[in-house]
Write a structure and sequence with these properties.
The chain is of the alpha+beta class. It contains 5 helices and 16 strands. About 23% of the residues have low confidence.
């Protein structure tokens, strides 16, 4: 059996000494910046000298490009990209006065401008993840929003935002779920609540590896291929898949030349039934 291919996403190191804690500000709705269209995925990256071998699971029903309508149980190769025009998304990493590292998650989208992308290959996934990683206001949701076409720009609201803008109480999830319509910056947008009832999981899934002081040493020392070998004991067939390895937020921040997050990262792969 041939070894599966590994695709790594190069990242730009950040020195946490230059980072400052964010200052939260309330911005009136009338002052929201104009919607910034999210560009479609960049041209897939050039293949390495040794061509990538395709994932073993290839028999995946494809999502139509125009106005796809998926049902629960169907598979899709869709990744949604959401941009918060007001707040950064991801993690804030800074140095505490005592020299320790402070990490604080800041992914809580109440108002986001989103677009869904068809992602059929590991190369396309790597290109999209790289592009998203260059914008601190952008994050991904590995899911398809029912009732919205791929490539169509739409809005994602929290239940509080739906209550404020559409006068639908957050206690009434039945009315809040589904697709709504609002006017934003002079044009009409479809709106979906940030609810699990509104999405279908993507075929692109990942394992999140976190190493900290509670991780046994023998697991800390495992390389990614050996870790996948261990995981395949409980997830049969995993070792036969090609995958895309992406460092976590803290793994891309350096202190004294070393990653703050050590070996933390996401191992992306494609499945047939998420």
């Amino acid at each position: 059996m041939q070894e599966p291919a590994t695709l790594a996403v190069p990242v730009r190191p950040i020195d946490p000494k230059t980072l400052k804690a964010p200052v939260a500000k309330r911005v009136p709705a009338s002052n929201y910046p104009p919607a910034t269209p999210i560009s479609p995925p960049a041209t897939p990256i050039s293949p390495p000298a040794t061509p990538l071998k395709p994932p073993v699971i290839l028999q995946v029903p494809q999502v139509p490009i125009v106005a796809p309508l998926l049902e629960v149980g169907q598979c899709n190769n869709v990744i949604a990209v959401v941009r918060d025009p007001r707040n950064p998304l991801g993690k804030n990493v800074a140095l505490n006065p005592d020299g320790t590292i402070n990490k604080q998650a800041s992914v809580n989208v109440s108002f986001g401008i989103a677009i869904m992308h068809q992602v059929d290959t590991l190369e396309e996934l790597a290109a999209l993840l790289r592009k998203v990683g260059e914008d601190p206001h952008t994050a991904i949701i590995n899911a398809y929003f029912s009732g919205i076409a791929i490539g169509e720009e739409f809005l994602i609201f929290s239940e509080k935002e739906i209550e404020q803008r559409l006068d639908i109480p957050r206690t009434n999830r039945e009315r809040q779920r589904g697709i709504h319509e609002v006017e934003y910056n002079g044009r009409k947008y479809k709106v979906a609540g940030r609810f699990k009832e509104n999405v279908i999981p993507s075929c692109w899934q990942y394992f999140d590896r976190d190493i900290d002081e509670h991780t046994p040493q023998h697991f800390q020392d495992l390389t990614v291929p050996k870790l996948i070998g261990k995981l395949s004991e409980i997830v049969p067939g995993l070792a036969e898949l090609s995958y895309c390895l992406v460092g976590s937020s803290s793994a891309r921040v350096l202190r004294d030349g070393k990653p703050v997050g050590g070996g933390n990262g996401h191992i992306w792969f494609r499945v047939s039934n998420p």
